[in-house]
Specification:
15 strands; 36% helix; 11 helices; single chain; endoplasmic reticulum; alpha/beta; 18% strand; 7-stranded mixed beta sheet; 311 residues; 2 domains; Spore Coat Polysaccharide Biosynthesis Protein SpsA, Chain A
């Protein structure tokens, strides 16, 4: 099944759902549309048979995870059967045969395709294609943050840069982050992490078996203290699932999420918008999906990719 997180560009979402339906006729397609956005017209999705639910979205806090967990509850409460779940954004698109993707999932011994690495050890081979400074894992996930201001201008970020750097050099008890507004973090003492419960991180986008998805939902419902802790870290969507699944030691997880993303020149984790100039790289990639495609300027490259996805 496909879980699609969306918040804008209904026509682009409808096209993605239609291609997924054509390429995977028996798949469940569940669209979790951000409650803060204009509601989607169900008529746009009648031909794809996609289910529409209202969910939470966003980046930098726990809201997108709340939306994912709500979708898993919906699947459980509605009694929907599925073998795998692939989460996508509304700006994703398949770049290889969907039939081949289904064949992979039908024959693999893996339980999930999930980018993951230890947040503190940061092994370069495991991190690829990400490159982090050594302190980032600790700064993000060993502190509890409060938001003092929800957004900052470029000028405000520039003014805060020097005091932020000076404070980091003076003490490890406090951190200031300006990526998602003005946030102040206090070192967690004690935090939840230890030798038997490591902090793992990686891309939010993944493909996992239903057993992994059910484990995540059960864990979240049975461990409210861990959920509460992750609500106050930075970018929990890039750590919560990895930390829960890897520490379970139950699943065979491949450190590859089967996605193509171009982070060259990225600021604050936003990948490059892909267009026709990127088509040769996309076609030559071993990935099955890519992001992100901006609408409507992405129409030419999506039109070029559609026959490949359905081939």
């Amino acid at each position: 099944m496909f879980l699609i997180h969306t918040h804008k560009d209904a026509a682009q979402i409808a096209q993605l759902a239609q291609v997924l339906r054509q390429g995977c006729p028996d798949a469940v397609i569940l669209i979790s549309h951000d409650v803060r956005s204009t509601p989607l017209d169900p008529a746009l999705f009648a031909s794809s048979g996609a289910h529409l639910i209202r969910g939470a979205g966003g980046r930098g806090d726990f809201t997108i995870l709340d939306g994912y967990l709500a979708a898993l509850r919906w699947l459980r409460d509605e009694g929907v059967a599925y073998d795998w779940i692939t989460n996508l954004s509304g700006q994703d698109f398949p770049i290889a045969s969907l039939a081949a993707f289904q064949d992979l999932l039908a024959t693999t011994e893996a339980d999930g395709y999930l980018h993951h690495f230890d947040a503190i050890e940061q092994d370069p081979a495991s991190m690829k294609p990400w490159v982090w400074p050594p302190h980032r894992g600790r700064d993000r996930y060993h502190y509890q943050y409060r938001t003092l201001k929800t957004s900052l201008s470029m000028a405000e970020r520039a003014l805060l840069r020097l005091p932020r750097v000076v404070l980091e050099r003076l003490t490890d008890r406090v951190r200031v982050n300006t990526s998602f507004g003005l946030m102040i973090g206090a070192l967690a003492r004690p935090g939840p992490f230890n030798a038997n419960f490591r902090c793992y991180v990686g891309s939010y986008w993944h493909t996992i078996r239903s057993a992994c998805a059910r484990y995540i939902l059960d864990y979240a419902e049975q461990n409210p203290d861990i959920v509460r802790y992750f609500r106050s870290v930075l970018i929990p969507d890039e750590s919560f699932f990895q930390t829960v699944l890897v520490n379970s030691r139950r699943f065979n997880l491949v450190n590859d999420n089967l996605r193509y993303v171009d982070f060259r020149g990225s600021r604050h984790g936003h990948p490059k918008s892909l267009d026709l100039d990127d088509l040769p790289v996309l076609v030559g990639s071993s990935s099955y999906f890519a992001r992100k495609f901006d609408w409507p300027q992405s129409v030419p490259v999506l039109d070029a990719l559609k026959p490949r996805a359905l081939g």
